[in-house]
Structure formats: C-alpha cells, structure tokens
C-alpha cells in the first residue's frame, strides 16, 4: 500500500474549526472512498468555502431544509447535493453544530483506483493524456469518478467508507486564492483555494 494511504485519518477536531482554516488545510490531504475491493483516492487540489450566516451562495443561507440539515451538523460529515439535473457535488461539513458551514471539493489529483475512476467517468479507456487531466478536474467530475451520489450525504468522515487522510501541510506560497466559480451571489468572497499549477484544477 502506498505511503499516502498509510497516513492517519483526520479526526473530528480537524473539521470542527473555523471554515476558511479547514478549507486551506484540506489542500494536499488524501480523499479516500472504499468501493468494494477498490480503494479510490486522490489528493485534494482545489476547494471552495461556504458559510450560511452571511454567504448567499451557501445552501445553508437563510434557513435549514431537509436537504441541507447535514450542513448544520458538527464538522466531519459529507454533504452531497445534485445540481443542474446532471452532477453531484460533495462537501466537507465544518465548524460547530448549527453553523451551516462546508467546504466544496472542487478537484482532486487521482492517486489509486484510477482505472475504476476512468470506467466510472467514461465507460471506456482513455483516448489521450488530455482526458486523464479531465478525469477529476471539477466537483461533478470528482463525484462521478468516485461514484459519489446523494446516498452518501451524511456519511461520517471518520468512518471506514469515505474519509480523508492527513498529509504534510501545503505551504502558503503554493496556495492560490481567488473568487469562487459558477455562482451569482456573494461573488466577491475570496474563498476558492487551490494548489498552484496543479494540472487537475477545474480552472487554470
């Protein structure tokens, strides 16, 4: 087993901190999903933060609904939603109970179970290297590659099905910061964080 899969699983205390701190610290960590005999994993390379108190782009803004109630749990759970009638997106719930904060996993760099990810995404072999970099370079692509659906919303990230492994903290000079992508409200918050020059970013 690769060294990055022998690392320690992140504890609940990691997730139950301030939203932006968790978002930045998730960069470089290893996202893992056990899929039968397959272990699918990837390095988190791009994230976005969402806060229900004042961020109108957050699903938790304004009030709790049946769909978003998991966002108001204590940090350390997965929140998955379906968007545009086509894509699932997965988020890491953060902070304390009632806060409604979460971090969207926008892109990962595949590490293990890559052939299974390719099958999940394309249903065929890759045609070229460009398709490889398109494998998980976006939130919907990542969920499709990892076969994550709304059925996984509410999964405990300290369990054994879907979890995140620790890794060396990414240096501040290697982290890019920008406005978030594909939203129409609270557009000026600089809450997109990414590992600079990584080929799997959703937007270069």
Main beta sheet, described? 8 strands, antiparallel
Percent helix, as a range, is 10-25%
Q: Provide the β-strand percentage band.
A: 25-35%
Average pLDDT, all residues? 93
Report the structural category: alpha+beta
CA-atom Rg in angstroms: 16 Å
User: Strand tally, please?
Assistant: 8
Provide the succession of SSEs.
Answer: HHEEEEEHHHEEE
Distance between the termini: 31 Å
Tally of contiguous helical segments: 5
Identify the overall geometry: globular
Low-confidence stretches: none
Structure commentary:
- 17% of the residues lie in helices and 28% in strands.
- It is built from 5 helices and 8 strands; from the N terminus they run H-H-E-E-E-E-E-H-H-H-E-E-E.
- Helix 3 (114-122) crosses helix 5 (139-146).
- The longest helix has 9 residues, at 114-122.
- The radius of gyration is 16 Å and the shape is globular.
At a glance:
By secondary structure, the protein is an alpha+beta fold.
Q: Which secondary structure elements does this structure contain, and how are they paired or packed?
A:
Blueprint: H1 12-15, H2 19-26, E1 30-35, E2 38-51, E3 78-83, E4 87-94, E5 101-112, H3 114-122, H4 129-133, H5 139-146, E6 162-165, E7 175-178, E8 192-195
Antiparallel strand pairs: 1-2, 1-6, 2-5, 2-8, 3-4, 4-5, 7-8
Task: Sum up the structure in keywords.
single chain, 204 residues
